[in-house]
Fold this protein.
Amino acid sequence: MYLTPKQREVYEFIKRYIDTHDIAPSYEEIQHHFGFRSVSTVFDHIKTLARKGAIERGGANSKRALQVVGFGKRSVTIPLVATVAAGSPLEVYEIEESVDVPEELLGGGENVALKVRGSSMIDSGIFDGDVIVVRRQNTAETGQIVVALVDGGATVKRVYYQGDRIELRASNPEVPSIFVTGEQNLEIYGILVGMFRKFNV
């Protein structure tokens, strides 16, 4: 689920208000907090957040019938285990941290989060600083986005099997593919099952 910075701010305000008051803020309170010119702006944000699955709305006449769902009770805590390169392979280093992710982003089995560094996957919607959710497995089908370890260095790419070599293809025309031959050590760390973007608000 992708939220723009302003949508994320509105979402976080609603979440904090509910946590504090056990009731959702009114549209007028949201308007006053953000300085919006009209309540219709609040309505537009609420409508978009509901469409994206971040909140649920009650009846049309109940302005306080909002429930936070996108990153609330339906979230699961998974470990943020490393930084991975969207570019040339990067040495994996441990990050002692965890993140809460919507459960709908998770695949079956063991899931971990990795922070992306680099811009080689931007045409697939993965940008520098994004957090990707990876299901741990050592196999992948051709065309899938994977986290691969090449001679110990980690990279996120689409994998293509080509006879006696494997292509790790970027989603950025300015970044060349990595071709792995039998002389190199390649390990599929896992496949991409989700991605989200964290904002400082």
